[in-house]
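Bench notes, afternoon.
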Amino acid sequence: MSVGALIGNMHLQTQNAFDAVGSCLPEVQGFVEALVPRMKNGGRLFYIGAGTSGRLGILDASECPPTFGVDPDSVQGYIAGGDGALRAAVEGAEDDLEGAWHDLEEAHPNSNDTLIGIASSGRTPYVIGGIQRANEKGLLTACITCNPSSDLGEICNHPIVAITGPEFITGSTRLNAGTATKLVLNLISTSVMIQLGHVQGSSMVDMKPSNTKLVERGVRMIEMATGVSTLEASAALSACGSVRKAIDKIKGNAHA
């Protein structure tokens, strides 16, 4: 194919990922409805995976604290082979049936926690072993996979199966399967954080204003929520260190 044909055909194929996720929305909903009460009660959410799946889980987990202001321990991601596998493949790590639970033990998981196993094939030993141990320990378990009737799907409380079909490059699950996985993770973590109250309207009022861009965004959110000037919003954010606290303070002063 020409470069234009390659890009065009790959783009057309991504629709398969969107359609696959659309087909499993009821399963995503059921899982989120089971997860939210546990997290309201102090439970944590863990992701495990190998290769692309593990990297996507860690990406989603790492974005929750700055976006929603939650404790870094509340959503955690683990990858077969450890953090070094984020940059370079660690051969054989995904075949370790005991590896995931060994990695999770440092967090002392308990029956109020939840574990999501991410594996496009649904047969990664690292993920299956982790889910098996989590089931034994009473954790809520779920999986994100793209393979119907997989071993992983059979052992989870909440299997989420997005059937993306053959890849543009055969077997390269970082493509449509990876896209579908990211979409499902977006749905889960974002809807959970909204349900936990970390969003007002459509504003992420609990975000950490840790750089100039986020400070400016925070000031705009305060302006929109309260009607004060940019100068007043900026002063309130500086004084309170939090968009939510700044909004509450301004509204409280207005009603005083």
